[in-house]
Every structure is written in structure tokens, then in C-alpha cells.
Design a protein that fits this description.
Elements: E1 2-5, E2 18-22, H1 30-44, E3 48-56, H2 73-83, E4 87-93, H3 95-98, H4 102-113, E5 116-122, H5 135-140, H6 142-145, E6 148-152, E7 156-157, E8 160-161, H7 164-172, H8 180-183, E9 187-192, H9 199-202, E10 208-210, E11 222-232, E12 245-252, E13 264-269, E14 280-291, H10 298-316
Parallel strand pairs: 1-4, 2-3, 2-5, 3-4, 5-6
Antiparallel strand pairs: 7-8, 9-14, 10-13, 11-12, 11-14, 12-13
């Protein structure tokens, strides 16, 4: 997959017309996947498949400093790549772009840059200055610019609309299990394994530590049953390239890994004793086991972690999970 970002000079290296899905695509949930499936169908017919979304920069429309996303840019790119789409465009959203009139967006972005033959959007899609553009706007210029519009209705699960807003709310409350059917996969965190204070190793429960990403949404502090994949590094293809390990992950407020007071992410991988410092792992959170606790001694901590491990194994032994 081609991933285009950090530029407004988007040029697709193809003479083919494109099928473009438009949206924020935060989380790339099952509702988003309906749009992507339409693009993939058109891609199989000879169109170049494109997912067009935004890279939020400082602007006067959105408070970017307080904006937390389900996926980082790299995580989003991996999910989109896994679908088989040809191109992901993360277009810089700044004040200049926010001031773009709807017709100008259609003319210069969809037609000139994307060479759109099909435009695929959700039924509530809005675009352009002051969000003045909508599905009817796209349709009104379709004949003039030679593209067709496909509109996808909102997806519902158990009579509730699947949305990034609901998913973010549930994650922020620690209800990671409930987002699995909405995302179509567990909530996850991907990052490099870094050195910590090795407190877990002293009690026989070593952890793989990751640093938090500034703009990524994390669930509240606590211990979670987790599944781990080594996605890049020496052991990424060890025995089975699709190997998934079980474990427990602690998300905390204490500066165990860094001294900036940020949250820490520490994962004990069951039955695993290899050195993976510097390698990239993906940690999927399946269910919250408990909240964060303060312990008076290492013996108390070890006893609790042993209990957490047993609880995690019980949870992960339940086969009714998204694979």
C-alpha cells in the first residue's frame, strides 16, 4: 500500500481513475469498513482504491491539543494496508484547508488530485468551509466532473450506531471488550519495546515496556488481559509469523519507564523469555481485570500479579473472541 502524508502535493502514480472513500476513519470500525469494502469492490474492477482522511494540524476549527485518536498514524496505516486498499492519503488539515469551499474541495482535491471516478461516503459526511458540503453537494457536481457517488448508511449493532465517538467513550472508561465487535478487532497499541526499571524481573514476572504516544487514546489505569504479536524485529517470524502470545498489560500513572509522569505500558508475555528490546510489538487489550492498586511490598505485588495472570488466562481461554 502507498501511504501519502505530510504533503498537500498529492500525486498518484497511475493513469487509472480512482474510487475514493472519504472520512475521518478514526478506529476504522465496522461502519468504516462498509465504505472500504465498496472501494475494494471497485478496485477489483480496475479502479485505484484510495482511503482519503486527514492529519489534524493546529487550526481554529478543532482543538488538536486535546484531541485523542484510537489509532496513531502508523497504526491506522497498518489497518488500512491489511484491507488491501491501494492508497491511504492523510491530508494535512490546517486553517488553510479548513477555509476551502466545498466546490473547491471537489474540484482541486477529488477531481485534480484524486481523479475520482467514484466517491464513497457515509450518509452524514460533511466537508468544506463551515461544514457546508454534504452528500447532496457531492451529487450536484457529479455530472459536471464525471464521478459517481455511493452513499453508505450508518451501521447499527444492537440498535446502536457504530461510531468512533462511542468507541472512544468506551475505551476511556476501560470497557475494551465492548469495542471488539464495533472495531472488528480488539483495541490495540503498537510500539517499540524499551528498557524499564526491570522491577518485574526481580519478582520473576518480566515485562515488555512501551512508551505512550502523545495523541493516542488510552484506557484508564489498570490491568488488562492482552494478546501480543511481535510485528517487527528478530523474533517477528519466530516459528510462526502469525504467532499470538497471551499476557497481561498494566497501564499505570507511575513513571516506571519514563520520568515525565506520563502513563506507562508494561506487558508480561506468558511463556516467553526472549530479548525483544528495540523490537516492535502490538498489544491487544481484551478485557479489564482490575483497576490500579498501590502495594506496600514486593511480595504483595507479586501475589496480586500472580492472581492477575490466572484471571487473564481464564479470560483468554474463552474462545468467543474476535480473532
Amino acid at each position: 500500500m502507498i501511504h501519502i502524508k505530510d504533503t498537500k502535493k498529492v500525486k498518484l502514480n497511475s493513469t487509472e481513475r480512482t474510487a475514493v472513500a472519504l472520512g475521518k476513519f478514526d478506529g476504522i470500525h465496522q461502519g468504516h469498513m462498509l465504505l472500504i469494502e465498496q472501494v475494494l469492490m471497485l478496485q477489483r474492477q480496475g479502479y485505484m482504491g484510495v482511503v482519503f482522511t486527514f492529519d489534524m494540524r493546529e487550526n481554529h476549527v478543532f482543538d488538536v491539543s486535546n484531541m485523542k485518536t484510537i489509532y496513531t498514524s502508523d497504526e491506522k496505516a497498518q489497518v488500512v494496508s491489511d484491507t488491501g486498499v491501494d492508497v491511504l492519503v492523510e491530508y494535512p488539515f490546517d486553517d488553510a484547508f479548513a477555509a476551502t469551499e466545498p466546490k473547491a474541495f471537489i474540484r482541486y482535491v477529488l477531481v485534480d488530485m484524486m481523479r475520482a471516478g467514484y466517491v464513497v461516503v457515509g450518509s452524514d459526511y460533511r466537508f468544506g468551509r463551515d461544514r457546508k458540503g454534504d452528500v447532496d453537494t457531492l451529487r450536484s457536481y457529479a455530472d459536471e466532473y464525471g464521478y459517481k457517488v455511493i452513499v453508505i448508511d450508518k451501521l447499527k449493532q444492537d440498535d446502536e450506531v457504530v461510531s468512533s465517538t462511542v468507541i472512544r467513550k468506551n475505551i476511556s472508561e476501560g470497557d475494551v471488550r465492548s469495542v471488539i465487535p464495533m472495531l472488528g478487532r480488539p483495541y490495540s497499541m503498537t510500539g517499540e519495546v524499551v528498557s524499564g526499571k526491570q522491577l518485574g524481573r526481580t519478582i520473576g514476572i518480566p515485562t515488555a515496556n512501551m512508551l505512550p504516544e502523545e495523541r493516542k487514546l488510552y484506557p484508564p489505569a489498570g490491568v488488562y488481559a492482552s494478546r501480543i504479536r511481535i510485528v517487527q524485529g528478530e523474533h517477528a517470524c519466530h516459528v510462526d509469523p502469525f504467532r499470538v502470545y497471551n499476557g497481561i498489560t498494566n497501564i499505570g500513572d507511575n513513571p516506571t519507564v519514563n520520568d515525565k509522569g506520563n502513563i506507562t505500558i508494561e506487558t508480561n508475555i506468558f511463556d516467553f523469555d526472549r530479548d525483544i528490546y528495540g523490537q516492535i510489538i502490538k498489544v491487544e487489550l481484551i478485557e479489564k481485570i482490575r483497576g490500579e492498586k498501590k502495594f506496600g511490598s514486593l511480595d504483595e505485588l507479586k501475589a496480586q500479579m500472580t492472581n492477575d495472570i490466572e484471571n487473564s488466562k481464564r479470560i483468554l481461554g474463552n474462545k468467543v473472541l474476535v480473532k
